[in-house]
Specification:
Elements (H helix, E strand, L loop, with lengths): L2 H15 L3 H7 L11 E9 L3 E5 L5 E5 L1 H4 L2 H5 L6 E8 L7 E4 H19 L3 E4 L2 E3 L2 E6 L2 E6 L16 H9 L5 E10 L4 E5 L5 H8 L7 E10 L2 E6 L2 E6 L20 E10 L2 E5 L8 H7 L5 E10 L2 E5 L5 E5 L20 E10 L4 E5 L24
Parallel strand pairs: 3-5, 14-16, 19-21
Antiparallel strand pairs: 1-2, 1-4, 2-3, 4-5, 6-10, 7-8, 8-9, 10-11, 12-13, 12-15, 13-14, 15-16, 17-18, 17-20, 18-19, 20-21
Length: 391
C-alpha cells in the first residue's frame, strides 16, 4: 500500500476523534480560534513524501505540505505516528476544513525560542568567530548568525589602537577569526532576526565583585595598556580603567602620546565607577599649577609667551610648562582681522598683556592689542550750514 493510500486511510479515523472546525463551532464548545502564525502542539497522524497530517487535539486535523516541510526533514525522519510535534498555523481552515500548517516556520520559531531561553538564563555559549568588520565580529549560534559588537568584547580582546584608526582596529578584529569565544546572548529578536551577543557579559558577575571593592578617591597603580586619541587605558590588578585626555595632565593636551606610553607604570585616582566602567585621573594626584598662577601672574602684567596653536577664534599661548593662555581673535589687533595667522605664526614668541585670570576654571586671557594704543580716528570736519538767502 502506498504512503498516500495509508494516509488516506488514517485520516478518516483521526478525523472521527479530532473534529473539524465547523463541527466544533456548531457543538457550542468554547474553543480558541486559530490565527496565522500561532504555534500549536499536535499528534502526528502520518508522514508522506509530500504531506504530513497532524491531529491538533481540539482544533481539527492539520496538514503540512510542500515547502513547509523542507527545512525540517531531519526532524521528520525521527518522528513516528503518535509523536507530539509543534507546528505553526499558515491558514486556519482551507476549503477541505483542514488547518494548513508549517514545520519550517515552527522550526525557526523553536530555534529563536531556544535562543531566548539561553538569553534569559544567561547561559554561557561557546561560538566560533566567522568574520570581522569595523563594528565587531560575526558568530553563529543554532544556525543563526549573530553579532558581537566591539563594545561587548572582554578586556582581553578589546582593540586598543592609537588614534582610533579604524583600519588598525579591523586588523585586530580579523586576527580573532576562527577562534572560539565564550559569550552570552543579550538580544534575541525573531521579528527583526536580530541576534546580539556579549563577551564581557560572561565576566560581569566576577567584575561586579571586584568593582565593589573599589571606592571613589582610591589610588591605584597599574600599567598603560593602550593609548588612544581620547585618553589612555590603565590595567590595575584584574581591572582596567580609562584616563580621559582631560585627566592626564593639567596643561592642554593635543595628543595623549605626548604624555604617556604603553607599558608605562602610573598611579591614578579613581574618580568614577559607572555601569562597570572605571574612570581614572592622573593629574589629580599632582598639584594644580593654576593654584600658583594667581601668585605668579597678575592682571595687567606683560608676559612673553610662545604661540602653540592657532584656531579661528584665537591663539593658545604657552607662558610656562603648565600654564597656557588664550588670546581671542578680537584681542590681536585694533583692526578687524579674519584669520589670526594674519598676525601670528605657530612657534612665534610674543609679548602679551594679561587681561583676565580664572584659576578655578584654568583660564587666562591675553591681549596683544592692549600693549599698543588704538589709532586715533580721523575727525570729520563739520561743514558749516549754508546760509539761507533772505527773501
Amino acid at each position: 500500500m502506498s504512503e498516500e493510500t495509508q494516509a488516506a486511510a488514517v485520516i478518516p479515523a483521526a478525523a472521527a476523534k479530532a473534529q473539524t472546525m465547523a463541527d466544533l463551532l456548531s457543538s457550542g464548545v468554547e474553543i480558541k480560534v486559530l490565527k496565522p502564525g500561532d504555534m500549536v502542539e499536535g499528534s502526528l497522524i502520518s508522514v508522506g513524501k509530500n504531506e504530513v497530517y497532524v491531529d491538533l487535539e481540539g482544533y481539527g486535523v492539520g496538514v503540512v505540505r510542500g515547502r513547509e516541510l523542507y527545512d525540517d526533514e531531519a526532524t521528520l525522519a525521527s518522528l513516528k505516528p503518535g509523536d507530539k510535534i509543534f507546528v505553526s498555523v499558515v491558514e486556519p481552515e482551507n476549503k477541505e476544513g483542514i488547518v494548513e500548517l508549517s514545520l519550517r516556520q515552527a522550526g525557526q520559531e523553536r530555534v529563536w525560542q531556544t535562543l531566548r531561553e539561553k538569553m534569559e538564563s544567561r547561559e554561557l555559549v561557546r561560538t566560533k568567530i566567522l568574520e570581522a568588520n569595523k563594528g565587531g565580529l560575526m558568530v553563529e549560534i543554532n544556525n543563526v548568525t549573530g553579532f558581537l559588537p566591539v563594545s561587548q568584547l572582554s578586556l582581553e580582546h578589546y582593540p586598543r589602537v592609537e588614534d582610533g584608526d579604524k583600519n588598525r582596529i579591523l586588523s585586530v578584529l580579523q586576527s580573532y577569526v576562527g577562534q572560539m569565544f565564550d559569550v552570552q546572548i543579550i538580544t534575541a529578536d525573531s521579528d527583526e532576526e536580530k541576534l546580539i551577543v556579549s563577551e564581557k557579559a560572561v565576566f560581569e558577575k566576577e567584575m561586579e565583585s571586584k568593582l565593589s571593592q573599589l571606592k571613589i578617591g582610591m589610588v591605584v597603580e597599574g600599567l598603560i595598556t593602550g593609548v588612544v586619541d581620547f585618553g589612555a587605558f590603565v590595567k590595575f590588578g584584574e581591572l582596567e580603567g580609562l584616563v580621559h585626555i582631560s585627566e592626564l595632565a593639567w596643561q592642554r593636551i593635543d595628543n595623549p602620546k605626548d604624555i604617556v606610553k604603553v607599558g608605562q607604570k602610573v598611579q591614578a585616582k579613581v574618580i568614577s565607577i559607572d555601569k562597570g566602567r572605571v574612570s581614572l585621573s592622573i593629574k589629580q594626584l599632582q598639584e594644580d599649577p593654576w593654584l600658583e598662577a594667581v601668585k605668579k601672574y597678575q592682571i595687567g602684567q606683560a608676559v612673553t609667551g610662545k604661540v602653540i596653536k592657532i584656531m579661528p577664534f584665537g591663539v593658545f599661548v604657552e607662558l610656562d610648562k603648565d600654564i597656557q593662555g588664550l588670546a581671542h581673535v578680537m584681542e590681536l589687533s585694533h583692526e578687524a582681522i579674519k584669520n589670526p595667522e594674519e598676525i601670528l605664526k605657530p612657534g612665534e614668541e610674543k609679548e602679551f598683556k594679561i587681561i583676565s585670570i580664572e584659576p578655578a576654571e584654568h583660564r587666562l586671557g591675553l591681549s596683544l592689542k592692549a600693549l599698543t594704543e588704538a589709532p586715533k580716528k580721523e575727525e570729520k570736519k563739520e561743514e558749516a550750514p549754508a546760509e539761507t538767502e533772505s527773501k
